[in-house]
Write a structure and sequence with these properties.
Blueprint lengths: L1 H9 L5 E8 L1 H13 L3 E6 L3 E3 L2 E13 L9
Antiparallel strand pairs: 1-4, 2-4, 3-4
Length: 76
């Protein structure tokens, strides 16, 4: 499945979201798990945690997600 996601990414899909997460490391890890479990998105890649220059407490992380294509079903 990751290969398919990368193909879409390489084709320049407008559905890619580049997200910067900033906060406590435990909160960032929790939110990344929430994103992984969400069936509306595929996580393409996630960076490691970076130190924020002005704080020893907080970290920064980057992730790319792709919105999955959903079929529209008309309700009658």
């Amino acid at each position: 499945m990751k290969d398919e996601v990368l193909k879409v990414r390489l084709q320049g899909s407008p559905e890619i979201l580049k997200i910067r997460l900033q906060g406590l490391p435990s909160t960032i890890k929790w939110f990344l798990k929430v994103l992984e479990k969400d069936t509306r998105f595929d996580m393409v890649d996630t960076s490691s945690m970076y130190q924020i220059k002005t704080s020893n407490k907080y970290k920064r992380c980057y992730t790319n997600i792709i919105r999955k294509q959903t079929s529209t079903v008309s309700k009658k």
